[in-house]
Amino acid sequence: MLTAVVRNTRPIRDVLRTAGVPRLLAADLIGRLPTGMAALALVLLARYRGADYTLAGLLAGGFAVGQAIGGPVLARLVDRTRQPPVLVGAAFVAAIAFGALAFIDLAGQPIVAIALVVLAGAATPPLEPCLRALWSLLLPDQRAVHAAYSLDAAAQELLFVGGPLVVVASVSVFGGTAGILVAAAVGLVGAAWFATAGPARRWRGAPGERHWAGALRSGRLARLLVMLVFAGGAVGTFTVAVTAFAEQAGVRPAAGWLVTANGLGALIGGLVYTAVPAGRDPSARLRLLAGCLALGFLPLALTPNVWIGLPLAVLSGLFLPPVLACAFILVDQLAPPGTVTEAFAWVVTAFSVGYATGSAVAGYLADHVGAAAGLWAAVAGGVLATLVSVPRFAPAMSQEG
């Protein structure tokens, strides 16, 4: 068993030894850290300024909506130009929008606050699709690319482990506005580091057919994106719901630990999944993984105790990276020629739309029903993602070597 695990992790080690990959992965994670910080930083900022959970949920959801709007637009612009100017310019705009949030009256100017959050989300640099566009340039074969997708899905969970910890540390030391200001700074630094890497500077988009619908002209890809909307909805309810859960229990700081525990579970799940060989039928595997995602939220929804909820929050995060890694494989198969980068941006958008909806729903439920209702909404999102996955997205293929 141990020998098999070591053998299956060899492609991951080969990917990490490839020239340029460690820097790109590190810069990508730093540049995307605001995504892992934003939800908790915005909720805590809203509560620090005396706003209710409805506005807190709208702010967290508004950031995701902004990402959903801006991601495909920026990715298509990258395809038609180059990576560095788009990444650095977008990061600069996002940093200004985040910084402005720290200096306005959120409760007194909710429309302005939501507009700034949406702008920050829309200007989020498309580092994720840019990195995936580089894999085929950097790596020697499809087996290595498959391994890179698994590593990518695992590594991005560091955002949801490290992001909340950075927020909690910043707020504890410097006050309620610090989380959002730190997010502004690290996002700009990470994007600049990524954009100045050699592979990013050399990359050029491949010529392809220009169609107004872009990647969305593939019906099966569109259905995969719907599935990811529901999966994102399940995750989106979590941050707002557990913050309300911790506050109702009289231990508001525990919210950061619950969010971190969920991210730690996702990191564990992603790392374990890197040792799982590629399957012959990614559609069937995705269906199974989506069902496990739904079941992972169930124990947390049933627990009455915050501290018992910590190990259950780890469980709730285990299956998200495998779901995403399996979806990445399908995107490669389903995207029309010349639209892969944009298709990966739509994956981010679909997940963000779901996340935004889940955040807003959880905020409403926390104010009007109770924190536990938001956790049950997470279970429901996972169930809906499973149901959408029942018909195959793509035919079974021969086993990869």
From TrEMBL:
Q: Which Pfam families match?
A: MFS_1
Using the UniProt record, give the first listed, main subcellular location: membrane
| Keyword Transmembrane in annotation | yes
InterPro entries reported in the protein's UniProt record: MFS, MFS_dom, MFS_trans_sf
Query: Which chain regions cross the lipid bilayer?
Result: 29-48, 54-74, 86-104, 180-200, 221-242, 254-276, 288-307, 313-331, 343-365, 371-390
Q: Does the keyword Ubl conjugation apply?
A: no
According to the lineage, what is the superkingdom? Bacteria
The Major facilitator superfamily (MFS) profile domain is annotated at: 220-401
Tell me the membrane topology, using the record's own terms: Multi-pass membrane protein
UniProt keyword list = Membrane, Transmembrane, Transmembrane helix
Q: Which Gene3D superfamilies match?
A: MFS general substrate transporter like domains
Q: Where in the cell is it found?
A: Cell membrane
* PANTHER family listed in its UniProt record: MAJOR FACILITATOR SUPERFAMILY (MFS) PROFILE DOMAIN-CONTAINING PROTEIN, PTHR23542
Q: What is the protein name for this chain? A: MFS transporter
UniProt organism field: Fodinicola feengrottensis
Q: Taxonomic lineage per UniProt?
A: Bacteria, Bacillati, Actinomycetota, Actinomycetes, Mycobacteriales
